[in-house]
Amino acid sequence: MGKVYDLGIDVGSTTVKTVILEDGKFVYDRYERHFSKVRETVAAQLDIIKGLYPVDKFRIAITGSAGLGIAEACGIPFVQEVFSAFVAVNKTYPKADVVIELGGEDAKIIFLTGGVEQRMNGSCAGGTGAFIDQMAGLLGVTPDEMNDMALRAGKTYPIASRCGVFAKSDIQPLLNQGAKKEDISASIFQAVVDQTVSGLAQGRKIAGQVLFLGGPLTYLSALREAFKKTLSLSEDNAVLPDKSSCYIAFGAALHAHDLGEELTIDEALEKIVNARTSDSIVVGEPLFKDQAEYAAFIDRHKKSDLKYEDIVTYEGDAYLGIDAGSTTTKLVLITPEGRLLYQHYCSNQGQPLDIIAAKLKEIYRLANPRLNIKASAVTGYGEELIKAGLGVDYGIVETVAHYKAAAYFCPEVDFIIDIGGQDIKCFKIKNNAIDSIMLNEACSSGCGSFIQTFAGAMGYDIANFAQLGLFAKAPVELGSRCTVFMNSSVKQAQKDGASVEDISAGLSASIIKNAVYKVIRAKSVDELGKNIVVQGGTFLNDAVLRSFEKELGRNVIRPAIAGLMGALGCALFAKEKSAGELDKSGLITKEGLDDFSYTSRAVQCGGCGAHCNLTVIRFADGHRFTSGNRCEKGAGIKVTDRTENMIEYKYKYIRDLEQIKPRTKPIGRVGLPLALSYYDLMPFFSRLFTDLGFEVVFSEESTRETYYKGQQTIPSDTVCYPAKLAHGHIESLLEKGVDFIFYPCMSYNIDEGGSDNHYNCPVVAYYPELLKANNDKLTPDNFITPYLDLNNKAHVAKAIARSLTKYNITPKMVLPLLNRAYSAQIDFRRDVKAKAQEIIREARKKGQKIIVVAGRPYHIDPEINHGIHKLIASLGFAVITEDSVAGLVQTPALDVLNQWTYHSRMYRAARYVCENEDMQMVQLVSFGCGIDAVTTDEVRAVLEEQGKLYTQLKIDEITNLGAAKIRLRSLAAALEEKEAAAKAARKAPVLQRA
Amino acid sequence: MNKETVSCSVPHSGSDRVHKSYFDRSRKGEYTVLVPDMLPIHFKLIMAIYKQYGYNMELLETSTRNVIDEGLKNVHNDTCYPALLVIGQFMDALKSGKYDVDHTALLISQTGGGCRASNYIHLLRKALSETYPQVPVLSLNFSGLEKDASIEVGPVIALKLIYAVLYGDMLMLLYNQCKPYEVEEGATDRLLDSWQKKMGRLFTTKRGYMTTAKLYKEMLSDFAALPRKKEKKPRVGIVGEIYVKYSPLANNHLNEFLLSEGCEPNVPGLLDFVLYCASDAINDSKLYDNKDKRTLVYGIGYDVLYKFQKQQIKMIEEHGVFQPPHDFEHLRRCADKYIHQGVKMGEGWLITAEMAALAETGTKNIICTQPFGCLPNHIVAKGSARVIKQAYPEANIVAIDYDPGATKVNQENRIKLMLANAVI
């Protein structure tokens, strides 16, 4: 007769933990990765236990995010994992105040004192172990090595950790620009901390004794340190319990004591092995019927290939193309006839410069001495760095490179889709020019690398994993929204018993659906055009390619060098451009490469308030390269004769209003937060309060610090960044010690006419309510939030007076002052309008094109726009804003309800752009702005109807402008090509007549 | 789903980019009108009413993955989930081959107001424009929107619709309070079904449907007569954005899930939302000093509806077996403690008030449902949960986001976590 033990099994998203208790004491524990083979791993763990306790009985409970399915299927009791943690902590650390537990794909906080509350991450897997693994992979190190590096870091960069995809787009450019891995490692951990604090704590302060649980927090000391520092925890208050990685299983075991029936391990194993799986997964069609269909498919695609030439024997001119992509580096060397001499495709391991230098060495070593590299061009994220470091002749924007290459294989191409490591790029071609560009928004990028990471997580390499899917019998239907969300869909499919093959095929289909419906937003396949060329490394995966053809219901062209198209385009461009211009490339020589070395250093630019994080790379020959800058100043270039920038002008106008002081001794100090609608209505309110005799105090200029200040009071992590910043502005005013903060709620904005209604968006309208409810320091005394409708003067007088009775202010006193306040607002509008015309005149004099940046008033905040306006200006455009021209035209015909004042301005501005040949529009959209889901499509329709290009930039707290830059440069390139085409068209009829 | 308070100053002719078909009322008999699946109990009554006026309506109950896929294809993917589902469900139906697309019309409710929901009808038209330009869209609204494209709502129909809301709420309440405890499986569903049929018949009579006192009494005694177990189950309140809160398609059959987890769902009725819309117009006029004729109409409407609610509550209380719905004036007082009644976009202050009222009357477990990224709910739901928890420390509130990517397992996990702490 054996003993009876309590066994807790914690089946997490990536690991299985088992704990055995005897009378509540640990006698056994184990932590094992399951590589998505959940049931097998659990069974294997039970086998091990059986070896140790052959005759004993166990009371068993299962817990964990992936444990529910197994538990239900086999009839062993299930305990919710947060609840397990709760039970375990109560038993061993009754004095703990807060528990932070990070798991593979889950992040949880349990508040134990002051109202028990449990929070876990919702639809987002950001800030978790999987995130850390993914980032470590990106750096090419193990998580442990990343930990060691982080401990040696000197500084941190802002990195978004809301999801892996966002973070990647922050980290990749840092890597490409040569930032130190030590610093990046520390930044990644800091990002996890920020995500946990803002995303999970959501307004509740994490204080007192804090317990760290789960794998990542157990094994990564740098992560714990980052938490300690951010939360200002003392050594005693930051507790890492014994066996913290198995703690949840411990809780389950405690539970089992009361719940589980007594089983031998054999009985338990039998239950688990024989568990019935549900059949609730939706499945699609197989990709290929049989091997024959697959063979025909392969044959068809073989036709699109380049001819080859031997680099060792070839004599004559050659052109070099380099595509320094986000995660991969591609090189090709071609002859003038387009024969391929050399090709290379590899992961850049975060060191594109080193890799390309090495490959150039190889080319020089292999090449015939009579081979002359006549010209070279580079494209991609690393373009500037490579150009500066290795003397490449031309840099071109990726979209142009890809079009050049696609047209080489299919001159009539009218649609190109490129799915790379982390971007999807699609362009429509009309009249031999790029007509519209669609890039994936920050939230769905990372497609190619996602499959790779996923393959890795399941213990396969990418090639094998993709191959598995080709003959899957029942591909799983996974979500099509965003790759991060797909993670949980996969989890569910696994839970439901889908095979690896079916998941592989399902993932391929998902990526395609994402591209077609999310990025291209196609309604029917005919929209995409007749001649479709697909490219990018992800399409080398036959399963993805096949899924695309199946989704479209037609065949497409995939060049055999689909992964090298950017590089090929560069080489072709170099050939075209250098004709008659260059005899020999300025590319670094063989000798130069032998001495090639560089050092990189991170500094912060002090040129302006944006405080860009610069990376300065110094090459062995003494020249420098600076990246991370948004304007010329950071690069150390002095620019004279700049056209004024409307966004800077407006921002300064609003900020300068603080200088107005009352003539007599102030009767009080009122704080106005410079956030959301105040960027529009500040002239009115600052004038009114000054005239009432108050000293008006503005909140500080927004910076990242402002955001951190208010972070702990943000209750909803999916609200837009401009709203999140408002929390910091409130803190800023409280710091400044104002008598009270005035922040009105306004359902309605000022009626500017020409619209169905004049609402504010719900967030702008009622944010003061949210601030009030989530910041303890705000009281009815120091936070005054009357409901105002500025369209009704008498009401405004009454409402303002009612809110200021403490200062003996009456409606009669307010009413006469209101006229001046309204005038101040009108003056502001008028001034902005006049300034815009001035800028337009100046731009036209200089032959500059004009971009109307259409967004919300608060998009002039430098912490919100991240200096995009400077970037636009640096590309040679003059910048004006939507509100500066909206008043000049009537509202165009619309198919939506035009009921928000700020949005109504955009529709009119779009019409104004249509009426001016030298103007284009760039729409700024804050991530999470639901209303823009309505406006963007409509603004696009208005513009495209008149043959304008539509460019949308999605922005949030991520400061990196890499994707924005590609878009803007593509816009510039597309405009150039359009113009050239128009010029050619104008010339053509003349020739015919002659 | 929202409400309209300010009249449209600009006619909505639209551009040439989108084709619009208008419904020819004289040919209504030839059409099948498709109705989205929002509130199955109520909508079935509403359909019965319109049948009498020559409309042949069909409730869409499809919930395949294709509904979501069609939504993703036809609507901007950042649009809120309800729009995506409603439009996806329509497109899925039109493409199914089940309907003669030349004789099919679509019905969508429209309420106006400052949230995105007022745009659903326009997004639906955009989606139809290319593939099904011949399919007309009918708007169901009480605010004079879409004059050329509204389904008839004369005074008699309007009155009947109000009764449908009242009876729908009553049946939903009784169903939820009996179903968890039924001894014979399926007995509650059968009783509900027979009542729906009965009400459908009564709506064709001249005034048979108006005898609320008599009918309530019958309903109460019929449901009370169902054999029920004595055990006590945790009561779980469902509040939130109106479509996600009610529609099984949107909330992954939340009601059924709660029942299967051994809970008693407590879903506040539709009448609260109707009263909320009316009260907002009145609040607005007080807040912004802009009384007009419409304010007066809303005021009268409010009083009438409120009286109906009081009667219903009184009858349930007197009967003594079931828990009545919240008194709307009480809800308004609840709201005043935590949020201003000026917050009127989306479901506005009503969500905060419902959470507070539920917590106060013993339903301490509350699920707040919303579409992912729902704008008003940032303020009224997630934004106000903290103050409610401060006032009711034992309140157990969980916010669940719904969107095409969110998986059921995650949502259920979160709900289970809440239930692990459930307060009976």
Summarize this entry quickly.
By secondary structure, chain A is of the alpha/beta class. Chain A has 35 helices and 31 strands.
Question: What would you say this structure looks like, in words?
Answer:
Chain A is α/β, with parallel strands linked by helices and 994 residues long. Chain A is 44% helix and 17% strand. Chain A has 35 helices and 31 strands. In chain A, a hairpin with a 3-residue loop joins strand 1 (4-11) and strand 2 (15-22). The longest helix of chain A is centred in the last third of the chain and has 36 residues, at 811-846. Chain A is globular, with a radius of gyration of 31 Å. The model of chain A is unreliable at 442-446 and 990-994 (pLDDT under 50). Chain B has 424 residues and is an alpha/beta fold. Chain B folds into two domains: 25-148, Rossmann fold (3-Layer(aba) Sandwich), CATH 3.40.50; 229-420, no CATH class. Chain B has 16 helices and eight strands. Chain B has helices at 40-52, 65-74, 81-95, 120-131, 155-178, 187-202, 212-224, 242-246, 254-260, 270-288, 293-319, 328-338, 349-360, 375-382, 385-391, 408-420, and strands at 32-35, 56-59, 104-109, 137-140, 235-240, 264-266, 365-371, 396-402. In chain B, the strands form two sheets. Chain B has a four-stranded parallel β-sheet with strand order 2-1-3-4. Chain B has a four-stranded parallel β-sheet with strand order 6-5-7-8, with helices on both faces. In chain B, helix 1 runs parallel beside helix 6 (187-202), helix 5 runs parallel beside helix 7 (212-224) and helix 10 (270-288) packs antiparallel against helix 11. Chain B is globular, with a radius of gyration of 21 Å. Chain B starts with 31 loop residues before the first strand and ends with a helix. The chains are: A alpha/beta (994), B alpha/beta (424). At the A-B interface, strand 8, helix 18, helix 19, helix 27 and helix 28 of A face helix 2, helix 4, helix 10, helix 14 and helix 15 of B.
